[in-house]
Amino acid sequence: MKHPILSFFFLLLLFSTLFSCRPNHSSYDMLMRAETVIDKYPDSSLVLLRKVNSGALDKSDNARYCLLMTKALFKNSIPIVSDSLISIALDYYNNSGDSLKKAETYFYFGQVNADMKNSKLAMESLLKAADFASYTRNYKLLYLIYYYLGDLHLNEFLYGPAIKMHQKALSYSKLLNDSSYITHALRNLAISYAGDDKKDSALINYYLALKVIPKSDTATLIALYNEMGGVYENLGNYTLAIESVNKALALDTSTEDPCYSYVTKAHTYLKMEKYDSAIYYYNKTIYSTNLYTRASCYNGLAEAYYAKGDSKKAFLLMNTFNKYRDTIENQTKTAAVVEVQNIYQHGKAKEQIQRLLLEKKEQTIAFYNWGLLSFILLLLLSASFFIYRSRNKKELLEKSRMLLEQENKLIKMREKESQLREDFFKKLNKLNKIPSLGLINAKNKESLSDDVVRISLTDRDWDELIRNIDVAYDHFTDRLKREYSNLTLQEIHLCCLVKIKVARNDLANIFCITPQSVKTTKYRIKKEKMGILDRDITLDQFLEKF
User: How far apart (Å, rounded) are the C-alpha atoms in residues 270 and 81?
Assistant: First the structure.
């Protein structure tokens, strides 16, 4: 009788162990659901995360919870005054081999520190995020990293580095083919150029943004026109400044007064010495809720009335401006006090996290008391694993064989592509109409005679040339038309000839222009049609890698 009773108690003890060591499935399930919907429905994700009992999660899931909670707060535009949560995720993922998780964690660690006004640590964290993200193909994360890096540099008035960061953000937005991301990258690039006193480059990027901005994004479109008005005002082109601001006003159907547009118009009219118009628009903005805007308006009104000879009114307005300036200074001091309070709250939050960690450690010690029985369970699981492994060995071998076949197919495809390219250049060498295609030494191409000899290519010649180029260079002309839809047919022909390294003199003879005109045309295509502003990159170099 004793043996069955002992067996019964042993099984009861085993089930108790399994029950006590089992993770909280309710919290785990909510965590998984929150992760699934966080990008599309961040508000719903936050609701789920707030129901999770983080103390019931293991170390891995707790790190995931801390990262997701920080991400949800950020996506819901809720201020984060402590880096305690994201620090737990960072401590865990920093020792893992998951480059994507490291990049994402450093990104949000940087965002939290940016909210806490710790610009230096924020910048260092985002740069580390960029390093880890470079090992992945997550273009969206790379775009966001460089976009916010550019913003950090802008906030510190470091316009040169900001330009480089936003250029990288722009390149990733193009890889994503997301018009909204492209628009915002171009806008911030324009703002950076304007801050660096490169107004022409700023306007080029503003116009590029206007070409790709989604029609539904009216708010950004208004901002673009207003900011362009400011650039034109600084350039002294007051007509275009007023015209740009008027476009913004025509689009602004919000219930609030479009103060930014009115202030820009007022400043412009003041510089044009149209004082009555300036006074009219300043008066439309003096009731703005923004203290800086009101202060600027009273200062502008004082200047306008003084220029009109009304010194008394100008003096009264200047006194009002000084009052607002004092209020702004007091608010700045208040902001400093708030920041000190945030630091204090940050310390309190860290203490709470330490307390929770201590409680969790005590729970872990309790679990270790059941270690012996857990070891028995592990033995049973190991036996099951080896049985499962032996049954699936054949499937693994079959998968390996299929992978090997796929690799062999890939090698054959590459050999076929190489043969296609070889045949392509053989066909081109037969096209004796273009002398430089038959040259062996490419360095001698530019030493050809400068005599203008008409090289006539028929439509059939062009069709055959483009067809062979598309085969050899992965649909080169199709990609060119899709990326730069404003290129003309003649410009596409020129790009094709440049791609296969036709000499400049031959290009001149084909298009009936001088070699210098060929150089000018290449530069115009690169800058105006493709928007490549880097002077160190030629059209030939760009198309060689395209």
Answer: 43
